Amino acid sequence: MSPSRMRQVVLLGPRQLTVREVEVPEPEPGEVLIRVELCALCTWEQRTYTGEETFVPLLGGHEVTGRVEAINGSTYLDLHPGDRVAISLLNRCGQCQACRRGYDNICEHGFDLPLRYGIPGPAGLSEYLIAKVTDLFPMPPSVPPEHVALTEPLACVLRSIKRARIHPGEKVVIIGMGVMGVLHLQLALARGGVVIVSEPNPDRRAAALAMGATAAIDPSREAYRERVLALTDGWGADVTFICVPHAAVVGPAVEAAAKNGRVLMYSSIHPRGTKVELDPNIFHNKEVVLTGTMSQSQRDFFEAAQLIAHGLVDLDPLISARYPLEEVRAAFEAALREDTYRVFVTMA
Question: Which domains, ranges and CATH numbers included, belong to the chain?
Fold first, then answer.
């Protein structure tokens, strides 16, 4: 039997958070009560914690996994209490123009965050949460909970990879080798890309080379465009993934693109509203495409869950540390360090 009270983390402002106690919610028809096992601290929660994002108060936490506690109503899924599930916490209304056109990853109400707990947010940093049956993806019990929690970021990266249309043998440059850069590296290699990474941190450059990157650029010491051209026999990058939130990298990435090159803005640029200057003739003369991706569709999430369920991606290198809920402040501070990838907050 579930307890009547639970703890959850509330982000209040720059390096301000609290752990409060509230009633365990009751699932409505078509909903499931999930006992959260752990939640990863994504960059969105990190930026909210540092004050870079000002949407507070916030019930953060969206890279999450847990076990089914109670189901309200029937379901076509083979779902039972105790099953471990990956959980998609992106709001998809199913009614707006974007959803009806098949773009549920950019639902017009995607950021209409739920208010079930009196404060908006996905609320993955809670001991229990409510999810719709349609947002649950059962996972084999043998899959570690940390791997399951990374379904959401893998789904976002999978969307980016699919949009880039990598052909075997194409030269792929990944700018930034944090969690998202590492996932791009693995999936780009699986598509047959010849991968070069650009990363100022020497440890992360070394890790990327160990994972299969062909070469690594240190943008703090080397001229990015010249190095990309040198490493591609003067051709340039067929595909570039920008996995850092810095506007300064956009111009050089476009300039170093090959003819018919695709430059993918995976990360949003901060601070928001920042402008970049580009020579428009590059797009005309070289047919370069500058585009981006946002979140993931439900299909992307399903496919990412399948990759993880069958062990087709190596997620162990991304697991840096685990902290109990009582030490959530220390977990956030650890997540901000450059020597970590993903930090997890455990609820048990």
Answer: 5-150+315-346 (3.90.180.10), 157-292 (3.40.50.720)
